[in-house]
Amino acid sequence: MKTSFILSASESIRDAILNHESELESLDRAIGDGDHYINMKRGAAAITELHAELAALTADAALNKIGLKLLSTIGGASGPLLASFFMSMAKVLKEKNDDTTTTYAAAFATGVEAIQQRGKAGLGEKTMLDVLIPVAQQFSTLASANTEINAICYALMQTAEEGMLATKTLIATKGRAAGLGERAIGHIDPGAKSCQLMINAVCNQVLSSQH
Amino acid sequence: MKTSFILSASESIRDAILNHESELESLDRAIGDGDHYINMKRGAAAITELHAELAALTADAALNKIGLKLLSTIGGASGPLLASFFMSMAKVLKEKNDDTTTTYAAAFATGVEAIQQRGKAGLGEKTMLDVLIPVAQQFSTLASANTEINAICYALMQTAEEGMLATKTLIATKGRAAGLGERAIGHIDPGAKSCQLMINAVCNQVLSSQH
Amino acid sequence: MKKFINKIDDVLIESLSGFASAHHDLVELNTDPLFLTRQHKAPNKVAIISGGGSGHEPLHAGYIGYGMLDAACPGHVFTSPTPDQMLAAAEAVHADKGILFIVKNYAGDVMNFEMAAEMLPFESATVLTSDDCAVINSTYTTGRRGVAGTVIVEKCVGSLAESGADLQTCKALGDKVNSRTASMGVALTSCTVPAAGRPTFDISDNELEMGVGIHGEPGRKREPMREADAIVQDVVSAILDALKPASDSEALLLINGFGATPLMELYLIYNTASRLFTEHGIKITRSLVGNYTTALDMAGASITLCLLDEEIKQYWDSPVHTAALRWGR
Amino acid sequence: MKKFINKIDDVLIESLSGFASAHHDLVELNTDPLFLTRQHKAPNKVAIISGGGSGHEPLHAGYIGYGMLDAACPGHVFTSPTPDQMLAAAEAVHADKGILFIVKNYAGDVMNFEMAAEMLPFESATVLTSDDCAVINSTYTTGRRGVAGTVIVEKCVGSLAESGADLQTCKALGDKVNSRTASMGVALTSCTVPAAGRPTFDISDNELEMGVGIHGEPGRKREPMREADAIVQDVVSAILDALKPASDSEALLLINGFGATPLMELYLIYNTASRLFTEHGIKITRSLVGNYTTALDMAGASITLCLLDEEIKQYWDSPVHTAALRWGR
Ligand SMILES: Nc1ncnc2c1ncn2[C@@H]1O[C@H](COP(=O)(O)OP(=O)(O)O)[C@@H](O)[C@H]1O
Ligand SMILES: Nc1ncnc2c1ncn2[C@@H]1O[C@H](COP(=O)(O)OP(=O)(O)O)[C@@H](O)[C@H]1O
Ligand SMILES: [Mg+2]
Ligand SMILES: [Mg+2]
Ligand SMILES: [Mg+2]
Ligand SMILES: [Mg+2]
């Protein structure tokens, strides 16, 4: 992976977040405390400020730095979770940076596992993991089957979207919405939404770089 | 003066106050603290409760008791002022209860003087005195001229109304509205309004007892 | 109107009962007439009594206790108490050195306390507090209103009385503290008197009421809402105009919330106000930030500056043990 | 949104600067990373550090000082602070007996403090407070939230630490106090996060939010507004269900305002709650009424009951000297 890809992907992510201000804000207002958009925006802005510094690093070092920066910037529940994701992903890439889809799938899966461990949560608890776990699984499956990168991107975007939408009918058992019981039903989880947005942004970045 | 007259007059006063709830309330909200109606209502209710006890007293004793009761019930600025009025009036009637219009005019004037002393205020300060002072003066003048009681009543009601309306264009220099400066202009003083209502009620009481 | 109340006529007594029960080690409640006295009546001291309309909590009952008040007479919400309350309270707490009434300068309070003082069988004196510089003083008016600065007067006089000082000495300190104190308030919303059931005044989302009184009385001016620094600047200027402090003065800065303003905002105001006063050469050496003289559920705050001298500092710093102000014991 | 603020991004730092300057005798502010420490660092004691999202003032910075916290890490409004803050705070206050983190049980706080603890070069332990019985505990959820009961935990543990107790003893007391404490809150209005600029939730004039969280998170149920006694009755029942106290228990009753509720109403709530608990055979022997764990400008209140024993009483009663809680010195 090239560091320049990380930089442009992080810009796409930031734009995706900024473009969904009112949606993210109202989702967290409905079943959380209303700050998810602000948290994500603060994180994205901090990474943008870091660009010059990141540009000089290898991809894994850049991802690790991004993780550390998010850890000290976002706060809330999403901060340590996303930080763990990037730092764990960085570790995998540091060991084996062979630029294969399988390696990226493995790195992604390791990142998602780190989120699971940090948050002690799994599938079906109405969190970002309802997007991330299915995406990680599918990514690994498709990568080991040597699926072409464009096809992988389309598939992951669709899975992310499905996972995000599926949170709507769930009762939350983790995070702030866990206090809500039945009242959480009918609302998409904000973290699931922002993860779907980020996956979408990165996939589109990959797709456009293929042309 | 008969105690029974005091009792029925106090009922007319109470009704007049209760019938002007929203007007009194909004006047004090505009240039005061909004409690004048509540204060007057509390005072009127306390006198109603006292009726059985008052009925057994002479007129002057009843008026004195009313003053004391108002003193311990109304509070605010209007409480001690109205209490002083009734207690001073009672003193005059105790000395000379000859049932002449001149005596009543003198008693009324003494009551109004007590208000002036207690509140250290005079004419034109946008208070109840802008009703009471002109009424007291006119009452004395008409009484010494041996004017017929009905004519006196009509005249006093008109003077009270004029005094009340005149407060609208004044700047307040006493009471809560004194902090307002120019902003008090355009609002009738709540205490002036309630005094006008009370004078009206008593005059009508007199008029109807003449028939 | 949404409030934690049952019957409107019972709000005051239920609230005072809760207060007396939560602080039964400090105060005792008498219901007819209504007044509160200090537990552990101190012998041989001037008895300090305050009171006024309710709705300004913790003023005054929250300041009953060692080093401050001996009794408080609460009136109905925003309505002066009546002389029978002061007489009964005085009877309960007098200790042969006379009674000092501390009264906020409002026509109603002044007259009710005055009548009580006239009827009182003991020696008494009165300190009228009049720190609200929103109301321009003039010979034609009843003068400035007493607002949050009253707390400073009560604290200092209370501590002096504790030391056994006589009535005139206590009154003199109260008058001195009052004369060195100026306050001004700003409201962002109205308060709602329970018995009225609706806001005392209407104010839109882009307005503020500059110089508001603690009963929601309109102030100097309805002004456009603006950033905190600009608002604080105007209040600070009014206070400096009123006190005209020498440039090396030492002062106590009190940021008082009116009831619905978060501490976060009060400290932000403190930050700006202390910077502005400091720029003016004033040394802020004492501070108090919180809800000390409120106006029910009004959003807003007042700024109070009290110019200190060695005597005022001494009595401000002395131990106090009340429900709302406590240090040194 | 009408608030005393300048730029939204500066609210927190300006407010904390005001706080640090008003209480410079008690606390010191560090800005990068953001944390506050106690002046007069105590030698040879467990260092107690708390923190969490801002907007709950005086929690936590208001509880820094003798007999309570050594440091506090404020996050952005309603957002957990980050591990670098805890690490720097720990570095500043550790005194060779380890660090005790007191953390309100919210996913974000738990994870950020956990990561800090993992990175910490000192021994540490964590007390998770989880007194909010609005959230029914179950094996599937992250469990109850930590709310106003946190103040009682911080007070007792802080006093114990002052006596020189070791880390595990301090943690054990914290866990014990927490397990004997239950709270539940009711909101009448929403709060408005400055950065959001609009109320977190909509609520009409005849509704209340039963079991609301201190960030304006929806609670158990949206219910019709009703009289105070009926509301308090429901909250008291939930607390009794959660704690199942023996009928001769002794308890501390805390009525906590969320920021915009007048003291008059809080004491009225105290009056009803203490009567109801007493009817249930519980002896209320300690009390605290005021704004101790707020949610910005939310109107509402929570009720907290803490079942006392001799040990908890001893550490509750011990001297404390912080900006928001002070007695005995
Ligand atoms: N234990 C957890 N595991 C995974 N994701 C979680 C967990 N707790 C919370 N989240 C995610 O974090 C999101 C909320 O993030 P954010 O609003 O930034 O933080 P906070 O909840 O602290 O305000 C939720 O929507 C959810 O997706
Ligand atoms: N010094 C005074 N002299 C005469 N009347 C006064 C004086 N001060 C106030 N008032 C009258 O009292 C009225 C207000 O009474 P009220 O609202 O019951 O008491 P408060 O002003 O204490 O709330 C004013 O409208 C005015 O007429
Ligand atoms: Mg959130
Ligand atoms: Mg009035
Ligand atoms: Mg009044
Ligand atoms: Mg949050």
UniProtKB/TrEMBL annotation, chains A, B:
The keyword Transferase applies. Residues 4-204 form the DhaL domain. GO terms for cellular component: cytosol. GO terms for biological process: glycerol catabolic process. GO terms for molecular function: glycerone kinase activity. It comes from the Bacteria. InterPro entries: DhaK_L_YcgS, DhaL_dom, DhaL_dom_sf, Dihydroxyacetone_Kinase. Keywords: Kinase, Transferase. The keyword Lipid biosynthesis does not apply. PROSITE patterns: DHAL (PS51480). PANTHER family: TRIOKINASE/FMN CYCLASE, TRIOKINASE_FMN CYCLASE. This is Dihydroxyacetone kinase subunit L. The lineage of its organism: Bacteria, Pseudomonadati, Pseudomonadota, Betaproteobacteria, Nitrosomonadales.
UniProtKB/TrEMBL annotation, chains C, D:
Residues 7-327 form the DhaK domain. Keywords: Glycerol metabolism, Kinase, Transferase. This is phosphoenolpyruvate--glycerone phosphotransferase. One of its GO terms (cellular component) is cytosol. It comes from the Bacteria. It is an enzyme of class 2 (transferase). Pathway: Polyol metabolism; glycerol degradation. Its EC number is 2.7.1.121. NCBIfam families: dhaK1. The keyword DNA-binding does not apply. It catalyses: dihydroxyacetone + phosphoenolpyruvate = dihydroxyacetone phosphate + pyruvate. InterPro entries: DhaK_1 (IPR012736), DhaK_dom (IPR004006), Dihydroxyacetone_Kinase (IPR050861). The keyword Transferase applies. Transmembrane segments: none annotated. One of its GO terms (biological process) is glycerol catabolic process. It holds the Pfam family Dak1. One of its GO terms (molecular function) is phosphoenolpyruvate-glycerone phosphotransferase activity.
